[in-house]
Amino acid sequence: MDTGSAKGGDVAIYVRKGLNFSKLESAPLAPADNTTEWCAIRLFTSNPAARDPAPNHLDIHNFYRPPIRPGEEDQRTDHFDPAALPTNRDTLLMGDWNAHHPDWDQHCGEEDDTGRRLSDWMALQNFTTLNDGAHTRTSYRGNPSTPDAVLCHRDTAGRCAWSVGPDLGSDHLPMITTVLMSGHRPRRIRRTRWAFHKADWTGFEADCESALATLPDDLTVEQLNERFTAVILKCSLNHIPRGARSDPKPWAMDPELVDAVRERRAARAALDADPGSAALRDQWVSAKRKAANTAQEAKSRAFQKFASEELNRPTSIGRVHKILRKMEEAVEIPPGQALGDHGRCAVEDRDKTEAFNRTYANVSRQVRAKRQDTKTKAELRTLNGRECQCGGARSGVCSPFSLQELEAQLPNMKCRKAPGPDDICAEHLRHLGPVAKAALLRLMNQTWASGLTPSAWRRATIVPIPKAGKDPKLTSSHRPIALTSHLAKLAERLVAARLTHVVERDDLIPCEQVGFLL
Description:
Blueprint: E1 20-23, E2 37-44, E3 57-64, E4 91-96, H1 113-125, E5 127-129, E6 137-138, E7 144-145, E8 148-153, H2 154-157, E9 160-164, E10 175-179, E11 193-194, H3 201-211, H4 221-239, E12 242-243, H5 255-273, H6 278-309, H7 317-327, E13 339-341, E14 344-346, H8 349-364, H9 370-385, H10 403-409, H11 426-430, H12 434-450, E15 461-466, E16 478-483, H13 486-505
Parallel strand pairs: 3-4
Antiparallel strand pairs: 1-2, 2-3, 4-8, 5-8, 6-7, 9-10, 11-12, 13-14, 15-16
Helix pairs in contact: 3-4, 4-12, 5-6
């Protein structure tokens, strides 16, 4: 959050995946306060629709009150008022207050005005600080102080723990606050993917050939698709790794940066042990600057490598597009953010799914017109009664697909695409052997001849994609993307290629009509 008029600072809250939350929009600041920066979330620990009367959420507020020193260079006025702060029990107020009082800063010789007003407010509202006396900042002069504090109600303090974290490069140290909460444990669901770059394709092909060599001849379309899909997945589990490892920042493992950070932390630890040493202070300042310069150089090298290598790979278009959108400050929707639509708050995944289903059902609901339906059904019966031009011989356009047609379409299938509900990808199909391809061709032809499609081909995984410039908390601000079976996509390519040939051969599209052929 950037308040615009305030200098420096900025506040943010990062929420781990698997935690459900919603953003708090109403700032607990005095109306005239245009310098204090703030952001907050409501963290849910159980479904708010449940009947459990116990508190099921925790409000986390992050503040930054800049140091205002009125004078010729600083024309700002401090209007910070503790009376505007929230006072409910399930609340944590944390941040850099730039306020000093012995309640949380044991190194201050004398309380300042803001520290005194905060302390008086805490006493009035039965609030306390979680700080244990450890300093949270070291100035460039080597003096320790504690301008940062975590405040909460005394009833909440009993289930909280506070400590100072490791040096992260700032003159401030991070504060670590642990809160015991009721409700279910947070679930961190990480979507796994096939690691095709580590696949043993030789073993995969051999196992598929062996498993698909003895398929019964009397299988229906549904049974054949189930058997074929089961074999592909079983062989994949044996020969293709699967995981969901997070990608670290490319510069995080830079050896020069690792050494510089180690030196910086060692220098700070030495200064904390002897705050009055001018030599140790100068050593820490030098190590801090060196680590910052090394980090910037590592970022530059990583970006140069990305621009020269990754941007030139056609298979990385999706990844490049996401990174470029981040550079343009595109808004990303955290997976745990609650949805609020029509007065309802959807927190859990099941509630969000039902909310999206209601929205899409209203948009795609088919309006039945009996007269039109009757007329359409009559036309369909007439068309179905007509004999095909091949006279039922299944020749010409109606003939079964050949192995040449199948092998011509397999390379055209796009790789690195998300699979449908059956979890089969184009990479699987492109690495099949001759026996497995014959089984795949049999499935395509059996579907083509009977006019029946497996039920798995008619199912899709719906992924809501946020629309640009829309409120992400509304379900109507997302457009649905349907991830269908790659086997169905292959069948579509085979049919489309044959129909395209007929259209071009018989000149069925007049020159006045403009369109696209797949």
